Amino acid sequence: MILEPVRLIQLSEIQDAHKRIAPTVVRTPLIRLELGPNFPDIRLKLENLQPINAYKLRGAANAVALLSDSERQRGVWTISAGNAGQGVAYAARQAGVPCTVVAVETAPASKLERMKKLGAELIPVPYDVAWKALDERSFPGAQGTFIHPFDDHNFIAGHGTMGLEILEDAPDTAAVIASIGGGGLITGVGSAIKALKPEIKIFGVEPETAAPGALSFKMGSPQVFKDWKASFVDGAGGQSMFPRMWDRMKPIVDDYFVVSLEETKKAMRLMAEKTRVISEGAGALPLAAALTGKAGKGPIVAIISGGNIDLNKFCELIAR
Q1: Mutual angle of helices 11-21 and 56-65, in 10-degree steps
Q2: Contact 282/236 with Cβ under 8 angstroms?
Q3: For residue 290, what is the enclosing H or E element?
Q4: Which domains does the chain have, with CATH numbers?
Q5: What three-state secondary structure class fits 180?
Q6: What is the CB neighbour count within 10 angstroms for residue 105?
Q7: Are 232 and 281 in contact (CB under 8 A)?
Q8: What's the predicted TM-score (pTM) here?
Q9: What are the DSSP calls for 7-53, one per residue?
Q10: DSSP 103-141
Q11: Which of 44, 186, 190, 238 gives 20 to 30 Å between its CA and that of 150?
Q12: Cα–Cα distance between 299 and 74 in angstroms, integer?
């Protein structure tokens, strides 16, 4: 398969996407986390309030809207640990397009169940098989137009719409922190923000168990994370950094943070206590990073990318 070369996401493409997806997505609130004078000024961008409880709907809605008639007739498929699959399934159902998801079989049951309820046909596979299929962009038995869950120009432009909203609601923002799984979220949001206010810092964050982005930044080239381990942070932290995504992120991301699983759990508990927000592990990484002080005093926007977590698991993780 010959892929179009990686290119910068233009501000005009993000602005067009914002209008295009407005009927499908929620313009999520940006709320201040009240922690007192000894903490950084942190604002939470609550993407857990999207109809699928995750930001992926932005990219999926834009990608599905831009399909040709013949592509719609053939249906779409994607690869996902849950949130991208829900996003594509939701957007496809609204457009009357059949959808298949090659789904990571260890994803939370709530994510798998919701993909089915949205009409997606699921093909369950182990994580490493899904990661390999992401690289190869093919999987036996998956039919139709492939929508890559992060290395897709239209998908990334859809995520960029969040950056426009952040700057409208908090023009004084000094830094934005986003979790990195494949890199689509940070590339989209960073593209919008750097086009409008290049002085704002864009920081990526990964869990200690899966941090190929931070390793790639340290080494200066895309790396495989050899000590990768599965954890409750299932929506971020890949097994490797895809070279194309590294090319997309290099001009946009200022630095990369790594947080521990314990810091992530504490961030999940803090959000539940202070704002009554239920966040999945990946959604809590940016807050965990902001609380370390490494991103400065703020104002820092922490993107709470999703809240798709089994409630029993959530309660178990935040119990003291």
Answers
A1: 90
A2: yes
A3: helix 281-291
A4: 11-52+160-318 (3.40.50.1100), 57-146 (3.40.50.1100)
A5: coil
A6: 14
A7: yes
A8: 0.93
A9: -PPPHHHHHHHHHHHTTTS----EEEE---TTS--EEEEEGGGSTTS
A10: EETTS-HHHHHHHHHTTPEEEEE-HHHHHHHHHHT--TT
A11: 44
A12: 46
Which one, of 198, 194, 207, lies nearest residue 286 by Cα? 207
Q: Which residues contact 278 (CB under 8 A, 6 or more apart)?
A: 48, 271, 272, 307, 309, 311, 314
Long-range contacts of 21-24 (CB under 8 A, 24+ apart): 21/58, 21/61, 21/62, 21/65, 21/158, 21/161, 24/51, 24/57, 24/61, 24/90, 24/91, 24/94
Strand partners, 123: 102
Q: Which helix (H) or strand (E) holds 274?
A: helix 261-275
User: Can you read off the two tokens belonging to residue 217?
Assistant: 């930044």
DSSP 233-258: -TTS--SB--HHHHHHHTTT--EEEE
Give the pLDDT of the chain (320 residues) as one tens digit per residue: 678 889 999 999 999 999 999 999 999 999 999 898 899 999 999 999 999 999 999 999 999 999 999 998 899 999 988 889 999 999 999 989 999 999 998 888 888 899 999 999 999 999 889 988 988 898 988 889 999 999 999 999 999 999 999 999 999 999 999 999 999 999 999 999 999 999 999 999 999 999 999 999 999 999 999 999 989 998 888 889 999 999 999 999 999 999 999 999 999 999 999 999 999 999 999 999 999 999 999 899 999 999 988 899 999 999 97
Residue 270 identity (one-letter amino acid): L
Q: Encoding tokens for residue 143?
A: 């039919």
Residue 99's SS3 state is strand
The set of residues, in sequence order, having a beta carbon less than 8 Å from that of 217 and lying 6+ positions away, is 253, 255, 256
